[in-house]
Every structure is written in structure tokens, then in C-alpha cells.
Design brief:
Order of helices and strands: EEEEHEEEEE
CATH class: Mainly Beta
Strand order of the largest sheet: 1-3-4-5-6-7-8-9
Number of strands: 9
Largest sheet: 8 strands, antiparallel, barrel
Number of helices: 1
Number of domains: 1
CATH topology: Lipocalin
Helix content: under 10%
Oligomer: single chain
Distance between the termini: 34 Å
Strand content: 35-45%
Radius of gyration: 16 Å
């Protein structure tokens, strides 16, 4: 199973195949309900083959993943520091560079999710996304849970990606 390219605005996540079943599988011996909840971003880092680490959303990104008990999810992450306001003061009148910076600094999508227990993977089935290439795709995410810490980590196209979240209480 090939993971989607994880660069630029696609750095975080990024499935139509609307799964009629809610979250029902068990991943790596974890109770299926353990993933349900709201998870705050702590770390987003990519490491290339030479060992260079980059933080595509800054060293302290802001955002959340929410997995609900009916099998739905939504993801929103913002670069920090936040993209500056457009010089015109009007969000509808940004320059091409301003609009591009805003797009590159934010990830947002929603859909359904399911767990592939054999692969310890949660599959985000994207119904709608800020990134057109994500809409209608499955985005597999290798994951592990350690108490209130969710780690999504793996390799894609020569880049090792790490996404760490903490459960919101």
C-alpha cells in the first residue's frame, strides 16, 4: 500500500470509498474505541534521506484531528506563526503570493475513517479537502497509541514523517 506524497500542504494527511461501517476494527491489540476523541497536534516533522529535519507547519503547529464514534473524522492544522493578513485587508483580494502562502500554511479535510488492524493503520477516507488531490482518496496512516499520545509515523517517497498528537481532556 503506497502512502500519498506528504509535502507542502499535503504534509499532514491527508478517500471517498465511504465505509458503511463505523470504526470497528482493533489496531495492534488496542481497543477500537481508544482512537475516538479529539487529538491536539504536538509535532509535525519530516526527515529526508540525508537526515535533514523540516517542520512544514512550524515548530509549534496548531490544530486537531477528531475521530468520532460513528466513524467520521476531521483534520485541521495551521502553520505557526500564522500566515500574515493580506496587505489589502480583504481576504478576497490577496495577491497570488499571499493566497499561496495561506494555502501552504493550512491543511483541512473531512470524511470517514476505518482501521486496518493487520497493518496497524488508520485509513482516512477523504470526502472533502482544501487540497483537491485528496478529495475522494484513501489516506492510510500507520499509527500507535501510548496512553493519551497518538503517533502517526512512517515513510513515503524517501521522507520519514512523524505526526504526534495528545488527547484533549
Amino acid at each position: 500500500m503506497k502512502l500519498a506524497r506528504l509535502r507542502g500542504p499535503v504534509a499532514l494527511w491527508s478517500a471517498l470509498a465511504l465505509c458503511p461501517l463505523p470504526f470497528a476494527a482493533v489496531a495492534a491489540g488496542v481497543d477500537a474505541d481508544a482512537l475516538v476523541g479529539t487529538w491536539k497536534v504536538e509535532t509535525i516533522a519530516d526527515t529526508d534521506a540525508s537526515g535533514k529535519v523540516t517542520h512544514p507547519y512550524g515548530e509549534r503547529p496548531e490544530g486537531y484531528i477528531v475521530y468520532d464514534p460513528t466513524g467520521r473524522l476531521h483534520v485541521q492544522v495551521m502553520r505557526t506563526p500564522a500566515t500574515p493578513r493580506f496587505a489589502s485587508g480583504d481576504d478576497a483580494k490577496g495577491t497570488d503570493a499571499e493566497v499561496r502562502a495561506a494555502y501552504d500554511g493550512y491543511v483541512a479535510y473531512f470524511g470517514r475513517y476505518r482501521v486496518d488492524a493487520e497493518r496497524s493503520t488508520v485509513v482516512h477516507q477523504v470526502v472533502g479537502s482544501l487540497m483537491p488531490s485528496y478529495t475522494g482518496t484513501d489516506q492510510p496512516r500507520p499509527f500507535k497509541l501510548d496512553g493519551d499520545v497518538l503517533t502517526i509515523e512512517g515513510d513515503s517517497e524517501g521522507v520519514h514523517f512523524l505526526r504526534r498528537f495528545r488527547r484533549v481532556k
